[in-house]
Amino acid sequence: MVLNDRDKGLPAAFLLSGTMTSLDVEKLFLEIRKVVPEFDPVQIVTDEAPCFYNGFRSVFPQSRAKLHYCRWHIDKTWQRNVNKLVEPRLRSQVKKMLKELLVIGDLSTFERRFAETLAFLRVEGQDKMNDYLRRNYLGRTPTWASFSNKDAVMDTTMISERWHLRLKTEFLHRNSNTRADCLVDMLIKAVEDLAESDEVKVRRRLATASYRVQQTTICHRLAKKHYGRHPDSIRQLSSEKWEVYSRQSEELLHVQRRTGCQCNKSDEANVHCPICDVCPYAWSCSCMDNRTGISCVHRHAVMLHSRPSNTAAILQTQSSEEVAVSGEEESTAAQISAEVSAAEERKEQRSLLRNSISAKVSVLQTNVNILVNTDTEQAREMLTTIHDLVDAASKIRLTPATGIATRPELHSVRGKPKLPRVELHTRKQSRVAKGSSREGAGNDGD
């Protein structure tokens, strides 16, 4: 999957295989190395199947990429095992403890909470779940804990999962048994449709900001609403550290400015807050709302508190914010609409040619019908000339003559063609119908 500036994914490569082993994944990365020899990602996010990372390492052994397991997949795995290994009276509490453990970004806090979780399971007699966590996750915490994933661009594989869901529901209509040639043809057309749909949205000014920018903006407004009325909840310890009281509880949180921002300077290519310009990668917070690429409420509060001169105009009224954001959106949309891609221009030219050909074919059909009804030698010669030209044009073949046979499940949502309905009658209605038919026959006889 390749992402654009609005976090919209577009498939770039497909792997169709009946098995899923390291050798199968290796074939995919061999093709990637042919196209992009310098391919060297910073991080690889996968589920807990080792075949993906092993296949990548066999092709790129010198890569700097660091393995990190998808947070969503780990959470689902833990929930399934809690339902199997933990008593019903403790399941909700254990699930809550494990879910909080996944989002802790501070190392010391993580070590303390993980030890508390294991101690709780041991005291409550949940030895199976305790042994499961120790055996499978205690020795490899850097691959799944959030404290080792602070500077990452993503921590889940939901972009790929969203594409898989769309492929299964919108394109395949939940039909798992599909011919390979139909599937390949569908994948090629699906990528073209997705790319064209995104481009149309941009040109018609219907494209929205990325999900992370939207969530960051929501957090900014929450910070302004709450901490604007409680400025004493923020205390500055040094030039780089602050203490902030949580909104829901009296928990004391620590916010720190870590490093300088390394993001792209363009507002369309980064995930900075469009209002106060806070960067999620240049700040850290000890709260539980640690989502990759999204600045929490407390970072916005510190930014508004530490830079009052730059944000005074923004903090006046909510309407001024909306006007500023709408003005930025209009200027961005005007700039985007002015940039028409060369591919779209070529497509418009091809559409004009198609319309012109359709018009000429209609005129040709009319002339052929007139010449057929004309009994002259000149009409026969003209028909012969038309036949030779059409025959030469028909020999231009782009695909094999035998096309892919269509299947009903590719056209209907439920996977089966609809059967004609037969009208059913009750016994009384049938007797009435028979009686009326007999009366009609008797009248005809009379």
TrEMBL record:
Residues 414-446 are annotated as: Disordered. This is MULE transposase domain-containing protein. The lineage of its organism: Eukaryota, Metazoa, Ecdysozoa, Nematoda, Chromadorea.
